[in-house]
Amino acid sequence: MDIIAGVQKADSGHVAFTPSELRIGYLRQGISFDQGETIGAYLNRFASNLKECLERLETVCEALATSPDDVLLVNEYDRALRNLDRAQQMEGARLDILSGFQLEDIPQDTLIESLSGGQKVRLALAGVLLEGPHVLLLDEPTNHLDIEMRDWLREWILSY
User: What does the pLDDT look like over 86-99, one tens digit per residue?
Assistant: First the structure.
C-alpha cells in the first residue's frame, strides 16, 4: 500500500494513475502526529482543497476566454468543476465525519497527544476522509471502531 500511495518507491516497475491528478487517501498503520498539534490544526491540514479548486477553475476560465474552442481546456474546465464540487461536499462533511467517529464533542484546541490511542486512530481516519480522495487505501481501518462507528464508516464509503 505504501507504494500505491506514493510513500515508498517500488524496487522495480512503477505506479501510474489515470487521471494523473488522482487523489489517494491513505490510512496506514503506526500513525504519528506532530508534537504539540491540536485536533483543529490537524484536521485543517486535511480539509478540502476548496481554495485551490477555486483558483484552478478561475485559471481555466481565463484561458477559455481567450481560446473557447480548445478541447483540452474544455475538458480541464469540466475536471475543475468536478473537483470543486467534491471539495465543497467535503467542506460540509466535516461535522458529519467527526460525529461518525464520536469526536465532535472534543474541543478543537485539544492537544492530540492527550487523546487515547483509539481517538487518535479515529482522528487520523477522519483526516483521510476529509481529504476527499478519489481512492481510499485503509490499512485495518476498523481497529478502535465500535460497531456503530463501523456501520457509519461502511455507509459513508457506500454513499461516497
Answer: 778 777 788 899 99
- Identify whether 49 is part of a domain: yes
Comparing CA positions, the residue from 49, 52, 40 lying closest to residue 126 is 40
Whether residue 25 lies inside any domain: the answer is: no
Tell me the β-bridge partners of 138. 27
Within a domain: 46: yes
Whether 112 and 42 have beta carbons less than 8 Å apart is answered as: yes
97 contacts 42 by C-beta, under 8 angstroms: no
Inside any domain, residue 94 = yes
Q: What is the DSSP letter of 113?
A: G
Domain that holds residue 129: 35-133+144-159
39 by Cβ neighbours in 10 Å (0-12 / 13-18 / 19+) ranks as: buried
Q: Supply the pTM of this predicted model.
A: 0.73
Instruction: Enter the C-alpha cell of residue 129.
Output: 476522509
C-alpha cell at 95: 461535522
